[in-house]
Automatic annotation (TrEMBL):
UniProt cross-references to CDD domains, sorted A to Z: ybbN (cd02956)
Keywords carried by this UniProt record: Disulfide bond, Electron transport, Redox-active center, Transport
Protein family (similarity comment): Belongs to the thioredoxin family.
The protein's name: Thioredoxin
UniProt xrefs under PROSITE patterns: THIOREDOXIN_1 (PS00194), THIOREDOXIN_2 (PS51352)
A Pfam family annotated for this UniProt entry: TPR_19
Transmembrane segments: none
Entry GO MF terms: protein-disulfide reductase activity
UniProt GO BP: cell redox homeostasis; response to stress
Superkingdom to which the source organism belongs: Bacteria
Length: 312
C-alpha cells in the first residue's frame, strides 16, 4: 500500500527524515516568503541570533532538534542580526537570543534569552498543536480515521496496513494500537492479539481506546474453552435448567459471531435463576456490553431487557 502519511505536498512530513528546508537561514529580503508565506500552512519559528552570542549557540541547536523532532509540523528560520540589522530594528529586537513564532501570517508566541531544553520542547509542542488545530486533522489522525473506517467495513487488510503506518511514526499511538488489535481479533488471530495486548504498558491499557479490547480477549478465550455448539444445544434441550450448559453455549455462540443468540442465552438464565453462580449471567452480560461498546445497538437493546428483568 502506498504510504498516505506525509505524502502530500502541504502536509507535515511524517517520514523518518525531516525535509531538507525544515531549518533554514534567511534574510530581510526573503523574510516575507520564508516566514510570512510559509506560516500560512505551518507555524514558523524565527531565531534571531549572532555569531558572537554565547547563549545563541546553546539555544539554536536545541530549537533545531525540537523542530526536527516535530517532522514538518513546525519549521524554523534563522536570522543573523549582524547581517540583517534593518529587519532586527523593524521587529524591535533589543537583545538576543530572541525567538518569535508566526502562524498564518501573524506572530503568536515568543521569548527572549536562553531557555532550558524542557521549555524549548514545550514551546515547539505548543506550536505543533496549534498548527494541527488550525489546519484540521493531522496526517496521522487522518490515517487513523481511514483505518477505523476500513475495519468497520470489514477490510481488515487495509485497516491493518494503515494502523501499521501510523505506528511506524507514533509507536504508542493508542488508537492505532487498539485498531491493530481489533484487526487481529477480527481475523481470529487470538494468540497474536493476546501477545500484543500483554506487551502494552499498564498506562496504555488505561487509555479509553482499549476499553473493549481486554473484554473481547477474555470472551474469545472463554469461547475456546466452552465446547461445541451442537453438543451444548443438545444438553440445554435435554435439561432447560442446566444453566452451566446454557452459559457455555452463550460463550460458544459469542465466539462464533452470534452475539444476539449469546445475549439471549444469558438473559434466559436470568429469567430462570437470577442468582445462579453468584449472579454469573448478569456479570457476563456486562462483559458483553464492555466488549461491544456502549453505543452498539445490541448493547442498548440487551441492557434494556436486562433492566426489565432486574426491576420486574
Amino acid at each position: 500500500m502506498e504510504p498516505i502519511i506525509g505524502g502530500g505536498a502541504s502536509a507535515p512530513d511524517m517520514a523518518g527524515e525531516a525535509p531538507a528546508d525544515l531549518v533554514k537561514e534567511s534574510s530581510q529580503q526573503a523574510f516575507a516568503q520564508d516566514v510570512i508565506e510559509a506560516s500560512m500552512s505551518v507555524p514558523v519559528i524565527v531565531d534571531f541570533w549572532a555569531p558572537w552570542c554565547g547563549p545563541c549557540k546553546q539555544l539554536g541547536p536545541m530549537l533545531e532538534t525540537a523542530v526536527k523532532a516535530a517532522r514538518g509540523a513546525v519549521r524554523m528560520v534563522k536570522i543573523n542580526i549582524d547581517e540583517n540589522q534593518q529587519l532586527a530594528g523593524q521587529l524591535r529586537i533589543q537583545s538576543i537570543p530572541t525567538v518569535y513564532a508566526f502562524f498564518q501570517g501573524q506572530p503568536v508566541d515568543g521569548f527572549q534569552g536562553a531557555q532550558p531544553e524542557s521549555e524549548v520542547k514545550a514551546f515547539v509542542e505548543r506550536l505543533r498543536q496549534a498548527g494541527e488545530a488550525g489546519n484540521g486533522p493531522s496526517p496521522v489522525q487522518q490515517a487513523v480515521e481511514q483505518a477505523q473506517a476500513a475495519l468497520e467495513a470489514g477490510d481488515t487488510a487495509a485497516a491493518a496496513a494503515l494502523f501499521s503506518q501510523v505506528l511506524q511514526h507514533e509507536p504508542e499511538n493508542p488508537e492505532a494500537l487498539a485498531g491493530l488489535l481489533g484487526c487481529y481479533l477480527a481475523n481470529g488471530d487470538l494468540e497474536t492479539a493476546q501477545e500484543m495486548f500483554d506487551g502494552l504498558t499498564d498506562e496504555l491499557k488505561k487509555n479509553p481506546a482499549f476499553a473493549s479490547i481486554g473484554a473481547q480477549l477474555d470472551l474469545q478465550a472463554q469461547a475456546g474453552d466452552a465446547g461445541e455448539i451442537p453438543k451444548l444445544m443438545e444438553q440445554v434441550a435435554a435439561n432447560h435448567n442446566d444453566h452451566q450448559a446454557r452459559f457455555d453455549l452463550a460463550m460458544a455462540l459469542h465466539g462464533n459471531g452470534q452475539q444476539q443468540a449469546a445475549a439471549d442465552a444469558l438473559l434466559e438464565i436470568m429469567r430462570r435463576d437470577r442468582t445462579w453462580n453468584d449472579d454469573g449471567a448478569r456479570k457476563q452480560l456486562l462483559t458483553f456490553f464492555e466488549a461491544w461498546g456502549p453505543t452498539d445497538p445490541l448493547t442498548i437493546e440487551t441492557r434494556r431487557q436486562l433492566s426489565s428483568l432486574l426491576f420486574s
